[in-house]
Amino acid sequence: MSAPENTLSPLIVEAIDVHKSFGVLDVLKGINLSVRKGEVVCLLGPSGSGKSTFLRCINHLERMTSGRILVDGQLIGYHERGGALHEMSGKELAVQRRDIGMVFQRFNLFAHQDVLTNISQAPVLNRGQPRNEALARARQLLKMVDLEGREGAYPYQLSGGQQQRVAIARALAMNPKLMLFDEPTSALDPELVGEVLNVMRKLAADGMTMIVVTHELSFARDVADRVVLMDQGIVVEEGPAREVLDHPKHERTQAFLRRMH
Ligand code: ADP
Ligand code: MG
């Protein structure tokens, strides 16, 4: 894996004291997280600890209650004027989100479009990429996710693992600076998990900056540069993957890891 802990690689994500409440429920209670270019960070933690909410704050799918998040130096979702934050327009947000790829537990492919259209449409519509360029890039990405030859398939003709690999290719087609994965293998039959993780390994090896919410501890151990353990809306522990997974310091990390085995 890469060694991104040097000061030369720029910060791609800076989350500063992020709070999020739903009514009286405080879901995020001051999350701080920095991710450098090329780094792979796995976000672990019990169900309900706020992992998805935090990922969704990063691309402003969720409006945080306070705090701020910068992606590649840009404040996400807001303009700062005279010390106050003003929410961006939908159009401005869309421009920011083009640079942040997101892959969910459910594949969310467009059911009525074939694979090639699923992958190539957004770059044409949202980036103004010429159609033939976008198609060529889509074919290249299909090869990368080991689905060469399935250009004309419709989502219903593919397995869950294949659909998820198309979803990854679709996100990559926008040339994101950052990829967010929210339990990308949790909805898959066990025998299909490996093929999706392999694509993610490849991406990591290619230097993509990634935040991955996952329960796949062996993936975290092998691929992540850093592991962050969240519980009840705070970061309980973070550090080099093997250090945290093999020698957890915090009692809550130890309890979580025990439950996972
Ligand atoms: P995780 O991904 O770690 O399982 P989530 O971020 O999905 O956790 O959820 C954290 C908490 O926030 C949970 O208690 C969940 O019920 C609550 N929550 C998430 N989204 C909403 C919402 N839109 N409205 C109300 N509560 C929510
Ligand atoms: Mg979740």
TrEMBL record:
Q: Name one GO molecular function term.
A: ABC-type amino acid transporter activity
User: Record's Gene Ontology CC terms?
Assistant: plasma membrane
PROSITE patterns (UniProt xref):
ABC_TRANSPORTER_1 (PS00211), ABC_TRANSPORTER_2 (PS50893)
* Entry keyword Cell membrane: yes
Q: Where in the cell is it found?
A: Cell membrane
List the keywords (alphabetical).
ATP-binding, Cell membrane, Membrane, Nucleotide-binding, Plasmid, Transport
Principal subcellular localisation of the protein: membrane
Per UniProt, residues of the ABC transporter domain are: 13-257
Which InterPro entries did the record assign? AAA+_ATPase, ABC_ATPase_HisP-typ, ABC_transporter-like_ATP-bd, ABC_transporter-like_CS, MetN_ABC_transporter-like, P-loop_NTPase
**What's its membrane topology?**
Peripheral membrane protein
Which Pfam family, just one, is annotated for this protein? ABC_tran
Q: Which PANTHER family match?
A: AMINO ACID IMPORT ATP-BINDING PROTEIN (PTHR43166), L-CYSTINE IMPORT ATP-BINDING PROTEIN TCYN (PTHR43166:SF35)
Give the protein family: Belongs to the ABC transporter superfamily.
What is the protein name given in its UniProt record?
Amino acid ABC transporter ATP-binding protein
**Highest classification ranks of the organism:** Bacteria, Pseudomonadati, Pseudomonadota, Alphaproteobacteria, Hyphomicrobiales
